[in-house]
Input
Amino acid sequence: MAVKVSEISEASAFFETVIKDYVANSPNNLLPAFPGEHIWDEPVVGFANGDDPLFQQYKQIIGDFHVTPREALEMHLQRAAYGFYHPEKTSVIAWALPSARPIRDSMLRETQMSSLRWNHGRWFGGELNARLARHLVVLIEDIGGHAVVPDQERWFEVKRDMPGAPVARWSQRHVAYVAGLGTFSLSDGFITPVGVAAWMGSIVCDIDIPATPRLCQDHRENCLFYRGVNCRACMKRCPAGAISEKGHDKAKCDEYNYKTIPKLLEKLGRHEQGYVGRYLACGLCQTHVPCESRIPIISGRLP
Output
């Protein structure tokens, strides 16, 4: 690409356009088993100052294992034989990919596990998300900058003493919050302007990009339950009983995903339908709920 970092006058608009064009035109944004059907609709994009104090606070809120954007970029560059490099500026580019309507609609009749469309969307859509992140890194390097995809680095995961996935050292939802993309929900999901049925992604770079303002006054503001509404729709949707008024029980959720659902597939005779991936990816609490595809409204106004 002929453009250089120094020639980008509106960096946020430039990268937002790049991300939206990539998702709109990528052949990876199609469900192989359902010809012509897209996985993700148009994404929303946000930006954060890599040295925002919230990233340092996450070491207390999430755990000292959680890395800051600056740590992520510097570790990557040291491993890439750049030697010690302390960038003057670090920025985070974050995005949310909303599940396409047919995928969300396919979940309406499900009460125990994900539909085939949702399952395929999670795994094939995850591949697009990973490719998008790498595309941005290559683009930034081509125009003279440095960048890293934290969740694709070797240090990304740490093991834990319980069934299920390891602990992530880079939380996409928490990063998205700093980048002004939304707030958390009772189910521990992340409610964006395009809803909770969305997949997050992010990279860190050394380009100076204006941060997206965080307009919410509370980190749970988009959730009806925390706005005093008797919603609890995600609680009712959860077949594992992993969501309560106290929040999300990750251990119960993992137990259901990794142990209960495989048994249900056999019991219900759905194991030959063509499900893919390490686990089905439940998704019930993200669909058929008021926040599925938007920030829910109270009395004609946003909460």
